[in-house]
Amino acid sequence: MQKLVMFALVGVAAQLVDGSLGMAYGVTSTTLLLMIGTNPAMASAMVQLAQLGTTAASGIAHHSFGNVDWRVVRNIALPGAVGAFVGATLLVNMPVDLAKVVMAVLLLGLGSYLLVRFTVKGFDSSRVGQPVGRRFLVPLGGVAGFVDATAGGGWGPIGTPALLANGRMEPRKVIGSVSTSEFVVTLAASVGFLTALGLSGIQWQIVVGLLVGGVVVAPFAALLVKVIPARMLGSLVGGLIVLTNTRTLINADLVAVPGGVAVAAYVAIAAVWAAAVRHSWRAHRAETSTPREGVQEGSETRVTHL
User: Which pLDDT does position 133 carry in this prediction?
Assistant: First the structure.
């Protein structure tokens, strides 16, 4: 029971992040599972299984509110599913030590991306344009699906910003379409993991804990964004992911890092992290103190689960 509660708290933390940013449930929960010593392939597999429930509920909700562009879902979900299955199969067949390093590198990249994006640009979702072409959607889906399976997360951090930056869809359509298509990607990754690993190695208390924690806390995620600005939370989470996965790389058997270098790396990351959070807070204050055209003072675009 104690372990179930612990994993539910991991799900709570991941959902609070995801409910505020519209991404990073998988990245956050996988990072936390790796921190407590979970096997990389198992960590990703169990996160994917937990997300079957959360992504299904999210997709249904978005569809009911008319937030889904089914053309985009079709074009991004199928290549995403292929990429996720390939990524899951590749991760399972890697040696454990190598898998830890590979996953840590991918998570480090995603964490750095979140840190830089939210610190420098915030979450700009104001541009709307023409329909997105298949030449853009198909490779985006394949890459995002592959990273999502091998890193235990990445569909939201890659897919959502890319579509928003493309500027050809309404923000709500981007969020709803990426969220709905994630169920297909998660299903493909889960099939890939279960085919290679079987059911015997799955720790269901982790899956149930992540699922229950995420579902229970979802209604409270909106409350969190009233307390912590999305831009600042993105910097906080990005820095946490960078720090924890740098630690994983430094402690990996495949990488020999002198103690002094490790300490210097931790200090440097902490300093950059603190500066990023400080900058995000100041930028948020500046944005909310100067109303933009067509936007009421203090308002922000909020996003839901992906």
Answer: 85
CB 215 within 8 A of CB 53: yes
8-state DSSP, 15: H
Residue 296 falls within a domain, yes or no? no
Enter the tokens of residue 99: 């898998």
One DSSP character per residue, 231-269 reads HHHHHHHHHHHHHHHHHHHHH-TT----HHHHHHHHHHH
How far apart are the C-alpha atoms of 247 and 101, rounded to whole Å?
Answer: 11
Tokens of 169: 């869809």
**Residue 303 domain flag:** no
- What single-letter DSSP state applies at residue 290? S
Domain count, the chain: 1
User: Domain containing 253: what range?
Assistant: 2-289
Nearest residue to 54 (alpha-carbon basis) of 221, 198, 168, 171: 221
> Which stretches in the chain have pLDDT values below 70?
19-22, 123-131, 164-165, 167, 171, 218-228, 230, 253-255, 290-306
Main-chain dihedrals φ then ψ at residue 300, nearest 5 degrees? -145, 155
Cα–Cα distance between 29 and 33 in angstroms, integer? 6
Q: Residue 156's closest CA among 15, 276, 11?
A: 15
CB within 8 Å of 244: residues ≥ 6 apart: 31, 34, 35
In a domain, 302, yes or no: no
What are the angstrom distances between the C-alpha of 99 and each of 24, 102, 110, 194, 231?
A: 20, 5, 16, 17, 31
End-to-end Cα spacing for the chain: 29
Q: Measured between alpha carbons, how far is 48 from 153 in angstroms, rounded to an integer?
A: 8
Whether 222 is covered by a domain: the verdict is yes
Under DSSP, the state recorded for 291 is: P
d(CA 13, CA 31): 11
